Structures are given as C-alpha cells and as structure tokens.
Amino acid sequence: MSPSPVIARQLSRWLRPGFLLGLILFPAMLPAQTERQIDFETVASFGLIGVGQGEPADTLASVEVRLAQNWHGIRPWLGTSVVGNGTWFAGAGFVRDFTPSPDWVVTLGTGPFYYKSDKRDLGLDLEFYSFIEATRRLRHDVRAGLRVGHLSNGGLGRRNPGTEDVTLVLVLPLTRARASALRHSNFPSPVRNDVMPAMSD
User: Fold this and answer.
1) What is the distance between the alpha carbons of residues 183 and 180, in angstroms, rounded to a whole number?
2) Which partner from 28, 105, 137, 144 sits 20 to 30 angstroms from 171, CA to CA?
C-alpha cells in the first residue's frame, strides 16, 4: 500500500475530535446574533462523502426538512441521503441557526440516523450525523452555501471508522419565500364592468 492513503486516514482520525469540539465551541465564537424569523425550510444538498480517507470519495445527494417549531431556536429536522454506491441513510435530530449578520446564517445540526450500505461498513446500523453549515441569503430569502458533516457511531459499534462529507447546500424557507414572492408580484386591479352608464332620454 502506498503511504498516501495511510497518511490521509491518519489525518482524518486526528481531525475528527477537533471537528466535534468545534461544533460545541463554535457558537461561543460568533458575534451577537441578528434577529431572524424562523421558518419551515426544505434543504437540498449535493457533494462528496468519504472525503480525506485515502479512498475515492462517492457522490452524495440529500433532502431535508426543518420545522419552524422551536425551543430557544433549537428545532427538529428530518433528512435522507443517497450515495452513488447504493448506500443510504435517514434520520432526524435537532438544528440551531446562528445569524452573525443579516445576510449570513451558520447552522449546527446533529441526530441519529439509520445507515444501510453494502459498500462502506461503518460498524453499526445506528450512526450519528453532525454538521456545520454556512449559507448566504439570496433573493426571496433563499440561501446557498457549504456544509461539512461527520457520520459515525460514536464508538457504539464493533468498529468506528466514521466518514466525512462536503456538500453544496440550497435552503428554501417556504413561509417567507412564498410571502415575498406574492409581495413582489404586480397583479393588475380588476376592472369592474358590471356598472353600466345611465341612458339619457
């Protein structure tokens, strides 16, 4: 075996604890938040999984929903992901948004997922997915950005190789996007033709 995969695998093991610690400490490093309405959101992402493990990464596509109901900004989310090699995983958890500026949103999320794969064994069917995501606001409050995630069983399985993903993310807040679209549409006022001019004798 060439030294490159070994080095990449070792670097991945060293970086994972720092990634998880960063998920915990990152909110404390953010500036004061800008007030932002919390909406029901749909999320689509596409990228690579198995990054930095010394093996070819696979393509990854995901779809999620994030509910508007929240407790101090913490709210439920549900998601499912499909990998190019036939692997899939689905689950639910909690996310929290941080808004350091009106145009930027930083999102942290975590939750348990059911993992099914014949190609990449992660040691257990129960895996935990955690991520950090930065998105920028576009038109009609749609946001686009980048996500870095980590999937592992937390040491509960017979082995715990874990894996990382890097994806591009598109976030569509349905409530405000629909209201904004309606607000910016210019519908002409209806013309009443049921009033007839009076006939002169």
Assistant:
1) 5
2) 28
- 3-179: what CATH class? mainly beta
Q: How do the domains of the chain map onto residue ranges? A: 3-179
Q: pTM for the whole thing?
A: 0.72
Which residues lie across from 75 on neighbouring strands? 95
**What pLDDT score does 8 carry?**
46
Answer whether residue 155 shows pLDDT above 90: no
pLDDT digits (tens, 9 = 90+) for 101-126: 999 999 999 999 999 999 888 999 99
d(CA 166, CA 49): 7
- 44-83 burial, b if ≥16 CB within 10 A, otherwise e? ebebbbbbbbbeebbebebebebeeeeeeeebbbebebeb
The residue ranges of DSSP E strands in the chain, in sequence order, are 41-49, 58-66, 74-83, 88-101, 104-116, 126-137, 143-152, 163-173
What pLDDT was estimated at residue 187?
Answer: 47
Contact 15, 102 (CB under 8 A): no
The pLDDT value given to residue 92 = 97
Strands 143-152, 126-137: pairing kind: antiparallel
Closest CA to 44 of 192, 196, 171: 171
User: Which two tokens mark 142?
Assistant: 């749609």
Q: What is the pLDDT of residue 11?
A: 47
* Residue 87 DSSP symbol: -
